[in-house]
Design brief:
The chain has 781 residues and is mainly beta. It has seven helices and 33 strands. Helix 3 packs antiparallel against helix 4.
Length: 781
Amino acid sequence: DINSYYGIQRVPKKGRPDMMNGTEFAQFKKESYEDRGVPVPEAFQNPSQYGEGHDWYGAMLRDAPIQNYSVTLSSNKERVRTTAVLGYFNQDGVLHNSNYARYSLRLNSEYKVSEKVTAGFNVAPAYGVNNTPSSDGAFWGGGLLYNAALVWPILPYKNPDGSLPLNAYIPGISTFPTSNFYRALNEIKNETNTTRLLSNAFVQVEPVKNLALKSTINVDIGYEDFMNFKPSTAGINYNSTVPGIATSLRKNNKYVSWLNENTVTYNKTYGDHSFEILAGFTAQKFRSDAQQITVTTFPDDKIDAIQSAINIDRRKTSTDIQEWSLLSYLARLNYNYKGKYLLALAVRRDGSSRFGENNRWGNFPSVSAGWIISEEDFMPDLSSVSFIKFRGSYGTIGNNNIGNYTQYATVNPTTNAVFGSTIRSGAGVTSMSNPNLGWETTKQLDIGLDVGLIQDRISIGYDYYVKYTGNLLYDVNVPQESGFTKFYGNIGELKFWGHEFTLSSKNLTGHLKWSTDANISFNRNKVVELSEGVNRLYAGSGFGTITMVGHPVGQFWGLIHEGNYKDEADFRDSPKTVISEVGTAKFRDVNGDKKITFGGDNDDRTIIGNPFPKFIYGITNTLSYKSFDLSVVGAGSYGADILVTSESGTTNLDGVFNVLKEVKNRWRSPENPGDGKYGKSTAATWMERDWENSRFISNGSYFTIKNVSLGYNLPAKIWGLRNLRVYGSIQQVYSFTNYRGSNPEVGSTGLGGTPTALTLGMDWSTYPVPRTYTLGLNIGL
């Protein structure tokens, strides 16, 4: 088989922030000076001279190709079955200077050694190269794309001769120096080379009928070589001087992970009774060895080898070893009576090296049962109802997904102490050990019903679940008398519950075939308990969330924005801060003390949003007619709030950055109060910029047509082929949403990393989601 496709990725206009152009921004600056009653600098006296200006955000983007090719060779002989797959994938990012390429091979083989012995192996080497400069995250996190959106559009990112200036600011007028982020994007190297080998081998012996002994070994070996090189001419933050000091970080990491599984399976049927019994044990171990070195000051930016650097930054030079292991014993019993009564009993006993010596082992039993009611004799022979199954399960699972060595005390070898009047250096314990650190456990109950109608042309599924996750792995507060503030422990309990529905239908079954698959889920969660004496947890810096007993996890926590103080009467009669003025942001007095306060134990912050949707849903329609086939896939979410934290920059009213077009409707005077969303640009702008408030909350509901694919099966036999298919597809076709950011499916933190469970739904300018147009070809020889 030969499979291939080629496509083009493009960021749609709807996925880009609607920033002011050159004329609009110059007018904004001119009005700001006029509103303050100070002379307007010459640069802003004639805004129309700038026209559209310079689209910094758009300059960072490009149309990017994506391509994939794979060749599959198969051999199926009497005792040997072998498959080999050779693959190549290459994707340019929609940001300049970003690319990912992967070369892969997979070889599967299975041998029938004898009538009682079967053996096989699987090897899958791969090599990948990924270059992705920092693109998302807040301006203080080095997010180049977001930074570019904030640059004044009256400033060029290219000189008339095509060269790239180092900086983009007007001396004496700009608040601080601004680097040329377009230049930085194209000059910074942020490359990871990955070599990986996944392998698997097994042997299965059936010494007697119905008895099978199987042993499997899985090995994952990898090596990663990472290099970040930032030349002296590349600045990534605002208020950074360029040229600066060239820096380079080199890091390599090699790891080995193996998993050995050994099972014994026995199955037997006695009349209407069928049994399958499985028992076994597994052992798993992981080790990684990493080293990194950071060097600075290169004689020539064109030579990025670390040995050519002048200085070593020893604070950022280190070695690291990580190890963990897991040992498990397991057993399972499956029982089937007459094909209509189903029962499964299972138990696991897991021991993890990540826990304290008193609590390393956990027992996790489960039971499930099913009843196929439609097979019962008492069920009437209904043509409309072809299948009914009731099922349920209850079980416990464990989680050891924490870092390594958290159960141990840590020692700082450079701790100073005072003896008399002399400071002595030495070693000191910096965190407590916890020999009782143990498994986080989840107990879950599931109840479900499956129904087939009209000879299974319509299938309906329903599931209800409720689960309690306890002994959460988290930082625990400890008394100050201990000399410490926190240590890693097991705390609290969370409750999750919900309803899930699925529907599959064969709408048309003639020459024109049409089938539909749809699903919808209603999921909820609540904090039942936190650690002793604690009823709330805060997460995030500046903009963040609160987790409180009795409420969902990670709620947005801030002031309620109520517009602006429209005039003197409104200002006089309303609660305010000590720096509030007519025209500045107005917030709700939640605690009723006749003043507005942010922070402290008795402030006016409250829950202002919930990142969890009321429901999520999806639908897929598949049609075929003769040699044509068409599929349309959609998915959506309803009711989630998103904290658009990126607007702390893109709606910053003090004129330091470029801003969204809608800021034109800000408050300017009692006679020109704007739309009430943005205050005046002359005073106290930092309040509505830096204080988390409901103005940053946006409706995160959406429905996205994820994929539309149209294919045609050509008459392959004419060319002596098994099959020949061509197709075209579009991914991320369109999103129906009122979300005012670029992507309602947010997933980044202020530093561009992956959010934690407590910081979901915060949009710090995520990587733009492109629309991808693809043409593909499948050939079967």
